[in-house]
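Hello,

Our lab assistant flagged a job as stuck in the queue for most of the afternoon. It eventually completed. Since we weren't sure the result was trustworthy after the delay, we are filing this so someone can double-check. Below is the sequence as submitted and the structure that was eventually returned. Let us know if re-running is recommended.
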Amino acid sequence: MVRSHRRLIISAVVAVVLVLALVILLIPAGVPVPLGGGIGVLIGFLLLLPHRRLLSELGLTRPEAAAILAAERERRSGVAALAPQVRAARAILRSRIYLALGLVLTVIFFVAGAYFVNNAGKTVDEDAPSNPWFGISFFAAIAALFLVPTFLWLARKHKTSADTFLSADGGQPA
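-- returned structure --
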């Protein structure tokens, strides 16, 4: 199953690179890219077929397979052999890092969003130089909009795993 998962990841990365290269070549040539989203879904479906077949042969669900892969990843990296207190301390550190990143990106979201909204309706002279911060603020706000919930979710996930390690050990982090 580990080998199948590795092949799936490699195939997905190769497919994304090839599709991006194809799009980069077709757009300047003026060739329309029909059904871009549909083609992406089809490629994803085709990439998942061998992995899904293996899971059905083994009689596993996706969450069960993910748990097995996570346990194997921990075993291979040596993390599974660490004491629960050490694993809890690592999870707490990761939780704090993700929380800090989430909070910093929240501030960036509000600052960039406010800048974009304040400058979005302003009239600009035709010969005036363009304001690069206007575009940067738009993309920064959009990126932060997606990353903030992700980082906060990861912080909560690591905090929960730290609590699990501590409850299994019955102590406090080292």
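-- support follow-up --
The delay was a queue issue, not a problem with the job. The result is valid. The two ends are 35 Å apart (CA to CA). The chain has a mean pLDDT of 86.
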